[in-house]
Amino acid sequence: MFEEFGFEELTPLAASVLLGLALGLAYGVLAQRSAFCLRRSLVGRWRDCLPALGAWAMALACAIAGTRLAVAIGLISFEEHRFLAVDLPLASVLVGGALFGAGMVLTGGCASRLTVLVGTGNLRALLVLVVFAVVALAAMKGALAPLRLALGAASIPGGGASLADLPGGEIWPLALALALAVLALRSTTPLSHLAMAGAIGLLVPLGWVGTGFLLLDDFDPIPVQSMGFTGPMADTLFWTVAATSIPAGFGTGLAAGVLAGSLAAALAAGEFRWQSLEGPRQTGRYLAGAAMMGVGGVLAGGCTVGAGLSGVSTASLAALLALAAMAGAARATGVALERR
What 3-state DSSP class applies to 275? Predict the structure, then answer.
C-alpha cells in the first residue's frame, strides 16, 4: 500500500517516524491539558477518582470502537500480532502487570503520564523515565532477558487469542466499548475532558491503520504497532546512544512527539515549571518504582497505554488480563501507602 502513495524519497521506516511524531504531538497536547493518566483513576477515594476514571473509560471505548471498525472494513488484521498469540503467557502477564501497576503508584504516574510531565519541566519524571527505559531495555535484550523468557515459557497452550473468538464474535469487544462509554458519560468527568480523552483513544486506531495499512510494504515491512511507551522508550534510549548504527522508528518519533506536544501545551498555558526530587527517601521510592515499571511493562506486553489502550483495542485476552493486573496492583499499592 505504501508504494501506491508515491513516496519516492521516504522509506516505510522513515515515514513511520513522521507518523509517530504526529500522533505523539497530538497525545502530548491532549494528555497535558486533560491530565490523562490511569493512576489518577485508581489511587485515593473513589469519589475523587471518578473524573479521571471516566476519562480513561472514554479513551478505551473509542480505542476499541475505532480499531474494531478498522478490522471490520478490512484495513488491518491482527492474525499474527503478538497480542493475539494462541498460547497465553499467564505468569508473565500477571506478574508484569502487577509490577507495573505498583511501580506507577510509587513514581506518581504511568509511563505515558511521566513522559508528558517531562515536557512540563518535571525532572523527577525525567529521572524515572531514564531508569524505566534502561531496565526495560535490559529485560528485552540484556541481563534481565532470561527472566522474561522464563516467565514467558509458563504459558497456557491454546488459552490466548481474542474476545472476538468467543461465541458471538465481535459483539463482545463492542459490548465492552459500549459499557465503558456509558460509564464515562455517567461519571463526573467534565465534557471537555471526555472529548479530549475520546480523541486520545482515536489515536490508537490511527496508529494501527498507519503502520498496518498506509505504510504496508511487502518488500520493506515495518512492525504493526500503535500507541505505547515501554518499547518506544527503550528504542529511543537505544537510538540515542547508537544512532549511527540503529535507525529511528515509530517509537522514537512517538516519544519525541509527546515531549514536544506536552512542552508546547505547558508553555502556552503558562504551566511550565522546573520540579525536582525532594530528598533521598523520595528518590529511592521513585527509582524502585521506575525499575518495577521497566520490568513489568516488558513482561506484561506494554504499559497502561501499550497493553491497555492499544492492546485491549485488539480484543486480546492477554492485554485484558495485563490491564486488570495493573489496575488491581495500583489500587492495592495506593491503599497500602495511604495506611502508612
Answer: strand
